[in-house]
Design brief:
This protein has about 500 residues and is an alpha/beta fold. It has 2 domains: about 375 residues, TIM Barrel (Alpha-Beta Barrel), CATH 3.20.20; about 55 residues, no CATH class. The protein has 24 helices and 11 strands. The strands form 2 sheets. The protein has an 8-stranded parallel beta barrel, surrounded by 5 helices. Strands 3-4 form a two-stranded antiparallel sheet. Helix 4 packs across helix 14, helix 5 packs parallel to helix 7 and helix 6 packs antiparallel against helix 14. The radius of gyration is 22 Å and the shape is globular. Bound molecules: S-adenosylmethionine and iron/sulfur cluster.
Amino acid sequence: MSEKKSARKGSVGMDFLQKYQKEFAEYDRLDQDFIDDDKIWTQLNKWEKPSRQDVRLVLKKAEQCVRLEPEEAAILLQNQDETTIREMYELASQLKKEVYGDRIVFFAPLYISDECANNCLYCGFRCSNKAIQRKTLSMDEIEQEVRIMINEGQKRTVLVYGESPTTDIDFICESVRKVYSVKTKGGEIRRANINCAPLSVEELKKLKKVGIGTFQVFQETYHHPTYRKVHPQNTIKGHYRWRLYCMDRAQQAGVDDNGIGVLFGLYDWRFEVMGLLYHTIHLEETFNGVGPHTISIPRITPATGTPYSQNPEHAVSDEDFKKLVAVLRLSVPYTGLICTAREPEKVRREVIPLGITQIDAGTRIGVGGYSQSKRANQLPTKEQFSIGDVRTLDDVVKEICDLNCLPSFCTACYRAGRTGEQFMKIAKSKFVHRYCLPNAILTLKEYLLDYASEETKQKGEEVIKQHLENFAGEAVYDSISQYLKRIEQGERDLRL
Ligand code: SAM
Ligand code: SF4
């Protein structure tokens, strides 16, 4: 029986499980990796009770918009004092405004397959879960899903896959090409990010050729013993270092726009934030200053047939979640922070001003979910976990406008080649505003004309007017105004 067929029946051959054995052996030979569990705990313990003065010294440095050192982050993570926690929140909001403006970038995930050979304790898609219906979308089904997403107003997506012979690298590439090929009147997906299992350099080179946006892989937990506990050792995912060095391989393959993340709830959240920071520093030091483009901060939510997910061992409270967002914003001011619809509306509302730069909305996470349901959580036997914010894209766009922020569907940077080192140069010198805010205005205008409800349209036009005024007296004011007119006359995809 072919490898693909046997995978469909729920079991995979040894060949598949051993496909990266040679590479594993190379990583096994390393004396140590860049996450030192003991050192992280020593740093956290050293600052078990920082004084106000300790915290304020770190905040003074953070004001300069520079990446913090792990020990400085440890001081903020351990801070229990309400007054200085408020100061941390204020500075985090201020830095977010300085670096990113009031803009929030929108995307939606597209689940391509729930077939998976791994057995991660927390995940609804793990191979031992009999409560999930297995399915990989055909190319026609992908097209159907994409059409619905486009018609709801989406421009950016992240394609999500399990790890299975059915979704090998050639299939992943074909699915990306399919997504980009779907065009409707005025609509298309302009940026497809990928969230899949770690790949080899050769596989990543293939991915590079099809023109993906961000390549995302979350470490889940940086704590070695916990990693071993929740990822069985007889699976590919059981190999900690194969995952840890995945973004190094991506950089080597030329995939330079990368997203890292942690699944909060598996281990102590303070340790995990330190892990994210060490990962960022490792990438910056190894690749000429280019760290991750984004950091994702999912918290575990309940998944069908998955007892571990109902009651995670290190569940993170809402208060601690807010704090970790602020600490990340202060520690890595130039890295995007993604807060997904796993979080309930109320939590998202509270953390957005503290430093979040990207959110999803109108999300369906079942395989085939856009065709089969109007909202998330309606297909529990097809969904990887449950969603906290099930509102439509239009509802969330409206709310972001109400907060006086600027919803953005912009995809200009990666299409103009402003990624990796290029992007970092622009971001670090704060020129992000020159491109991102005008393009946010232009893409919001398209959304309002093509997809928005009357109420959202009114609010959105108001927001555009206010944000345009911020450019008064600058040359770019005229360019934006002219482009807005051309969009009103029917042109699309105009960008700076
Ligand atoms: N299968 C690939 C992998 O594991 O790298 C692709 C990613 S998986 C489909 C997307 C992410 O969902 C995982 O990396 C994990 O962080 C997150 N996830 C898994 N189970 C979850 C749960 N119960 N609640 C919230 N997020 C979960
Ligand atoms: Fe598979 Fe990813 Fe779920 Fe693990 S987290 S079981 S690798 S889909």
